[in-house]
Amino acid sequence: MDGTLNNDIEKVVDADRAHVWHHLIQHKPFETGAPRIIVEGKGMRVWDQHGKEHLDAVSGGVWTVNVGYGRERIANAVRDQLIKLNYFAGTTGSIPGALFSERLIEKMPGMSRVYYTNSGSEANEKAFKMVRQIAHKRYGGKKHKILYRERDYHGSTLATMSAGGQDERNAQYGPFAPGFVRVPHCMEYRAQWDLSGEEYGVAAANAIEEVILAEGPDTVGALCLEPVTAGGGVITPPPGYWPRVQEICRKYDILLHIDEVVCGVGRTGTWFGYQHYGIEPDFVTMAKGVASGYAAIACCVTNEKVFDMFKEAPEDPMDYFRDISTFGGCTAGPAAALENMAIIEEEGLLENTTAMGDYMLDQLSALQDKHAVIGEVRGKGLFLGAELVADRDSREPVDEKLAQAVVGDCNAQGVIIGVTNRSIPGFNNTLCYSPALISTKDDIDQIVEATDKALTKVFG
Ligand code: PMP
């Protein structure tokens, strides 16, 4: 920390307490306690208003700051670009927009077009709108349904919540948009069928086919899935799942939309999570890691098959994608994203993510041997979860307050970890780890050690 923390910080805290509505939390405790203000960050670490250092094991709280804090190179590129040209609407091109799209598509064989927007929710909405428009253009509006999966999350807007698989998040916000249909989850640890391994994976995919058949294949336009479910429980897909999902989509001419808002841009050790599983998607949406939070940027990427459908009848005034995102025309996003991608390449961060992810998985598995409360450790790359259960045989989740206590104790030790969202009540019991892709063994040891101590303190 460079010492810029000054006496005025109390004024900042007062202003925050009086006027800021923080995301995703109950504010009552702030009437007496102070909100936490993060003042500065460098590498894997951040400092709060008290000057206390925290090792950030969740990349900015929500798996975003993939290349770590304090990257002057990104800040300088953004500064230079803003001075040259900060904005012009996305109806026209920009230099960083064109160059980043080219670099991005190089990493995504089979894909071809980048639609810029500024949040993960918005990127997903773009894909949903494209699916709806294709239904109208080609199928008289009939093939309009969008399938989504139990436990997956696709955003905070009403249409993306209509595709939200975490019931507790949706409670009190309905009614939702029609035409979104839920398919079962694919979490082997909490399997719905008495099967395991590949058999389970194929059964979970076949369950999607059952929904398609029940709805009528000619009414289903797309299937939207996270490659590894994030907030819903850090759920890695079972073997056999993805090949069968792909086969089903092809069989019924259903567009496959992969939501890479969390997994995208290195988080799992490949550029995109879907690339572990040999999938050929039609849509890929991404946000958080695209510019690691240095600028707001999100992308809805499509293949040429989808893009071509929007220029079939150029003489028809309704034939193009009639959509705009004002801030999709900001140049700071792609300028930051270009540098972010260059850093990942030059510093070998995909390789580091795979190596450190394997190391962390081993270390967390060792904790599992020590603490009976850890029911399962799972994840891919530096995107890991440790599910806490009251009983290993019954797999009954621990009381949510106890999972929160573990997070709180890690925080007190100066290590910020997360816990999965309240999804299906009783399932917000998975500790989450998504440290920056620059993590070292020492960082991981510190995170695991803090968890170890916290588990001992809370569970004995
Ligand atoms: N998809 C997934 C998988 C996410 O985890 C999130 C955000 N947590 C979103 C979409 C929505 O992104 P945003 O908050 O940028 O709208």
How would you briefly describe this protein structure?
The chain has helices spanning 9-19, 59-63, 72-84, 95-106, 120-139, 158-162, 167-170, 197-215, 241-251, 304-309, 332-346, 349-370, 400-412, 441-459; strands at 38-42, 45-48, 53-56, 113-117, 145-149, 180-183, 220-225, 255-259, 283-286, 298-302, 374-379, 384-391, 396-397, 415-416, 418-419, 430-433. With 460 residues, it is of the alpha/beta class.
Question: How would the blueprint of this fold be written?
Answer:
Blueprint: H1 9-19, E1 38-42, E2 45-48, E3 53-56, H2 59-63, H3 72-84, H4 95-106, E4 113-117, H5 120-139, E5 145-149, H6 158-162, H7 167-170, E6 180-183, H8 197-215, E7 220-225, H9 241-251, E8 255-259, E9 283-286, E10 298-302, H10 304-309, H11 332-346, H12 349-370, E11 374-379, E12 384-391, E13 396-397, H13 400-412, E14 415-416, E15 418-419, E16 430-433, H14 441-459
Parallel strand pairs: 3-14, 5-6, 5-7, 7-8, 8-9
Antiparallel strand pairs: 1-2, 2-3, 4-10, 9-10, 11-12, 12-13, 12-16, 15-16
Helix pairs in contact: 3-11, 4-11, 8-9, 12-14, 13-14
4'-deoxy-4'-aminopyridoxal-5'-phosphate (PMP) binds next to α5.
Name some characteristics of this structure.
460 residues; alpha/beta; Aspartate Aminotransferase, domain 1; Aspartate Aminotransferase, domain 2; seven-stranded mixed beta sheet; five-stranded antiparallel beta sheet; 14 helices; 38% helix; 15% strand; globular; binds 4'-deoxy-4'-aminopyridoxal-5'-phosphate; PyrdxlP-dep_Trfase_small; Aminotransferase class III-fold pyridoxal phosphate-dependent enzyme; pyridoxal phosphate; PyrdxlP-dep_Trfase; aminotransferase
